[in-house]
Amino acid sequence: MYAHCDSPGDAKAAFDALEQRNLYSWTGLVAAFAISGQSKETLRALERMRQDGVRPDAVTFITALGSCGDPESLRDGIRIHQMVVDSRLEIDPKVSNALLNMYKKCGSLSHAKRVFAKMERTRNVISWSIMAGAHALHGNVWEALRHFRFMLLLGIKATKSAMVTILSACSSPALVQDGRMIHSCIALSGFESELLVANAVMTMYGRCGAVEEARKVFDAMDEALRDVVSWNIMLSTYVHNDRGKDAIQLYQRMQLRPDKVTYVSLLSACSSAEDVGLGRVLHKQIVNDELEKNVIVGNALVSMYAKCGSHTEARAVFDKMEQRSIISWTTIISAYVRRRLVAEACHLFQQMLELEKNGSSQRVKPDALAFVTILNACADVSALEQGKMVSEQAASCGLSSDKAVGTAVVNLYGKCGEIEEARRIFDAVCSRPDVQLWNAMIAVYAQFGQSHEALKLFWRMEMEGVRPDSFSFVSILLACSHTGLEDQGKSYFTSMTTEYRNVTRTIQHFGCVADLLGRGGRLKEAEEFLEKLPVKPDAVAWTSLLAACRNHRDLKRAKEVANKLLRLEPRCATGYVALSNIYAELQKWHAVAKVRKFMAEQGVKKERGVSTIEIGKYMHDFATGDDAHPRNREIREELAKLHSQMKECGYVPDTKMVLHFVDEQEKERLLFSHSERLAIALGLISTPLGTPLRVTKNLRVCSDCHTATKLISKIAGRKIVVRDPTRFHLFKDGKCSCQDYW
């Protein structure tokens, strides 16, 4: 009785009071300790039992093995196993299965495999199921599936528990077919209607990216059967597959009371849909449900407001949090960096470090993930000085040799145009194979058009035994695209299905090939390539082809591609702007006005060109034609001086870049006010002679600004890095790293 009431102390007292003890009373004492998970006391009871001359039987050992359920109790489990061997009970299939299960729970796959190997003649459905589940739990997905298939060949039906465990291991698109096979077995076994099983099937489809199949399972569930976990799984499936709006629509049907997991998923959906209004409504519900003090929910609120562009509301939530984790600090600091409020981000970062240094009760110890997140945020906005400070702090925390931190630092210097420094750090950290680190350095070379360096590094990576992954090929294809290596790029693309079968070709790879062909002027081939794809091309692929059509002056094809893009995404501003620009180049101003009027009626807005430059601890934003900067007069004077010097060097404004129905003088004035020129001018008047300038622009650099920046780099004697969505440009001594091919 005491054993089953989880009261081992009372059970021991009752046992000690017995005048005579037999196998059953000793097994009862063992059970008391085993049920409460006290493996050491269980082991002592077994040893006392043997000293008392009572021989444990199979039931005793099976009961005792149940006390070992985590890695810390593995040594006790091994000692109990030795007692089993000494008692010659290892051949008992029930005892062997208990040993298998114990080693599975204790995390020792090697011991489990040795037990399983000795069971060649006594294996049963439980043995196979435990072993398949053990492989799944240890991440050996293919081995788990091999065991599962072998069971099917032998006509053995896996247990429900085993099928659920193996399902949990199917967590990527490459494993969706295996997941479907297991789902079929579950359906044939009649387990599909059980809540736990249905939830596991949904989870599998969600992780594999099969959203519609997950939804079918959800819809097939009896409404009374669904619990909050079922709803949470479907919501998170939508969120993790970038379908935030679908998650929001599903939530509106939910009749159950949301829990913290529900709110975290919904807040993430608000972030992806940029629906701050619903986020505020959820925030009120969270307060009403008294969940605002939960750290995970608080972090989700901070993240939602930050990603929706409201850093003030994010900060308000952060300031009210009674307990903050490292994720809380990382999220709010990254929010400030992405809003280009670098000084405030620096202050928060130092505040976090001071709390740790002073031993405050609110202290958090920055980990590698925190540094990586902040470094990547700095890299995204080219905040090199802030990034340097963060990387120095990472080194002082003993993380200089951490691969993830090293990769983030390489990414930081690369995106800020410091290629030599990025390579120095890469060489210092690259002591062990790590594909992400290699990918980061290859990407740096690819982004700056140094294709030969990228290809050399790719070859060296293979020679050192590092297997390329999907991202490796994206960078290599971009490197070939940015320097016109069309045939070489196609060769690498083909090799993905011959030499590198472990790498799945994705829409990103297909888009890179279309971009490669388009930049090289092979527009018809690029269009046919996209039309014949086994998957539907996305907007990015059509947009890159559209840009290539315009660059190569194939306006007829550009118009056709723009219409295809708009059929795919009817509210895509890029498609309308491209059509408008095509009509402008053809001098069809009536058609231009018609397109712009339609955009206004549909509420489609053209993205405004914005350029950003880091000066000290501050980021400065400029829109095209901007005159709001406090130093606007000095900026305009600097630009006028540069304009005069450029003309002396032979500069002729490329006014065809201005697609407005105005005279040549006005076109020249409009070019003069492009956002990157305003940012460069501020950099020139705000920094010492020779200081490199780093500008980030949200739209593609026009050909006239490209020519102008080359001349400015020569006149001012500056290295100027301009980063736009298509590539990085390093201007120096009147030349650009892209060699005018972009």
TrEMBL record:
Domain DYW as annotated: residue spans: 650-742
Family annotation (SUPFAM superfamilies): TPR-like (SSF48452)
Source domain of life: Eukaryota
Molecular function, one GO term: mRNA binding
PROSITE patterns (UniProt xref): PPR
KW Repeat (keyword) present: yes
PPR repeat ranges, renumbered to this chain: 22-56, 227-257, 294-328, 434-468
Entry's Gene Ontology BP terms: RNA modification
InterPro entries attached to this UniProt entry: DYW_dom (IPR032867), E_motif (IPR046848), PPR_At4g14850-like_plant (IPR046960), PPR_rpt (IPR002885), TPR-like_helical_dom_sf (IPR011990)
Record keywords, A-Z: Repeat
Coiled coil: none
Family to which the UniProt record says this protein belongs: Belongs to the PPR family. PCMP-H subfamily.
Name this protein carries in UniProt: DYW domain-containing protein
Biological classification of the source: Eukaryota, Viridiplantae, Streptophyta, Embryophyta, Tracheophyta
